[in-house]
Specification:
This protein is mainly alpha-helical. It contains 4 helices and 3 strands, in the order αααβαββ. β2 and β3 form a beta hairpin.
């Protein structure tokens, strides 16, 4: 036991009560910190998701427009070839030459039709992607405005709560030094499993788990200051006298 550790059960009960209160306050502060961080990270995460989508959509739009431009260039080239084929047909001297040029022109016309169909499909696809990009840009702009408007306030609140948490943590360190190490280790083990390590009883029922204590255990607890463990939830438990009845109004 350290020099500052407490020896009597009554003193240990008092310190356990203080420690349980501080730990409950620390949990509230930790929850507030988690909530503020979650809000900020949620805004940043949503914005990043949109920005990633914009990058992907813009790349898809650029690829779509590039393919469309290449197909349009192919169509212009084939139309030029068709014109050359017409000139060849005008110069054809035999039926065989004429038929060959006609087959060549039909193949070119079919390729032109196929390219034009592909160009139309790519145009529809590009317009769809362009609409998605516009919508994502609008939503990203709104999120950026929301983030810019709230980030400072959230960071300020987060800093305040973290400062409170540090102060409360130092208070906890001071309290824990007043407990025997064995008792503190038991407290921490229970808290790690149960969240709260301390309970009380006034009428024979554990206030934490609402289960009835064995009569002999309750009798020992109510007879003198003593720290035991609840048989049901294993929390450290001690007796707290019932509050005095309020005096009747005159």
């Amino acid at each position: 036991m350290s020099e500052n550790a407490l020896s009597t059960a009554a003193e240990q009960i008092q310190v356990l009560t203080e420690l349980a209160v501080v730990d409950a306050e620390l949990k509230v502060l930790d929850d507030q910190i988690a909530q503020e961080r979650s809000t900020l990270e949620g805004l940043k995460g949503s914005l990043k998701t949109l920005q990633d989508k914009l990058t992907s959509d813009r790349a898809a739009l650029a690829a779509c427009e590039k393919n469309r431009a290449e197909l349009q260039a192919d169509v212009r080239t084939m139309q030029t070839q068709i014109e050359h084929s017409r000139d060849k047909m005008n110069r054809a001297r035999t039926e065989r030459e004429t038929n060959a040029v006609q087959r060549e022109m039909e193949e070119l016309r079919k390729l032109v039709r196929d390219r034009e169909d592909d160009i139309e499909k790519l145009g529809v696809e590009a317009e769809s992607i362009r609409t998605q990009v516009t919508a994502a840009e609008t939503e990203a702009g709104k999120l950026e405005q929301e983030l810019n408007a709230n980030e400072g306030d959230i960071s300020s609140r987060l800093g305040q709560v973290q400062a409170q948490r540090e102060t409360k943590g130092r208070e906890r360190d001071t309290i824990t030094k007043r407990l025997p190490p064995v008792l503190f280790r038991r407290y921490e083990m229970i808290r790690s499993k149960r969240g709260a390590a301390v309970s009380t009883t006034t009428d024979g029922t554990c206030k934490a788990c609402n289960m009835s204590l064995p009569p002999q255990l309750f009798h020992r607890l109510s007879r003198e200051p003593m720290i035991e463990q609840c048989p049901s939830c294993n929390r450290l438990i001690f007796f707290v006298p019932p509050a005095p009845a309020a005096a009747p109004e005159k």
